[in-house]
Design brief:
Elements lengths: L1 H5 L7 H7 L4 H12 L3 H19 L4 H7 L5 H12 L3 H6 L18 E5 L3 E8 L5 H11 L12 E5 L12 E7 L16 E5 L3 E9 L5 H12 L12 E5 L12 E8 L1
Antiparallel strand pairs: 1-6, 2-4, 2-5, 3-4, 3-7, 6-8, 7-8
Helix pairs in contact: 2-3, 5-6
Length: 269
Amino acid sequence: MRLLEESIAEEIDFEAIAAAVGLSVHRFHHLFSEETGDTPGNYLRRIRLDGAAMRLRWTRETAGYIANVLGYESQSAFSAAFERKFGVSPGRFRRDHQRWPNVPVDEIKDRRIAIRESQGFHCVAKRYFGPDPQVSDHWADFLASLPAGAKSDHRSLYLGLTYDDPRFTAANEIRYDCCVTVSESSESWKWLPKDQGFHKLVTLPGLYACVEHTGGYVSSLKTYALILDNWLVNSRYTLTDAPTIEIYTVPPSRVPDEELQFTLMLSLY
């Protein structure tokens, strides 16, 4: 999955992807479908189109530019694929604010958005799928299965990486990475078990728009809406392809939902 995501803008060579994980093309397709319930090609099409929906909603990029950076051979091919999934053309989707309305954020008291520079976080990560109410369960599983070499110390941060918006992506298909930061030279890089879904990951360095969230995880949709629907569209910045970062000092599974706190970081250029 990560190899496909890293190659999203390119014409995918499934033989090369299969070889990178030590499999024949046939075996790769079989195991991918067995593990995920979807084919590699369908998975790639879905994340491309969901990514296109977010770009149309929150950037000023043209449909032609979006088609190109997401690996489509032409704008017409992109438009046809997009309309099959969402039922409207990319242009109509962008203009249809009644179909994809802004989330009300009037009750959020702290609306301060800070622009900060990040050097990137070195992490041990594990991928999960599912709706927002399952995030606490993701964290409980992640912390229970974390290799001893990656156990956190008092300097570690817990990061949640979000790739999708529940307004555009089906609940069971929402991607979420649970991560714990480690030093670049940490031995945990060497001892990650290859059969338990752990992965070494470095977040994108650069500018981020940051806002604090306090309260239940499900209510964080309003904090996301504050920064996306209200702040970003009126700013001079544009979203990057990087996932949004949630920084916790205490992960969701270890505190009552109403006491949850995290810093939300949106990657910009």
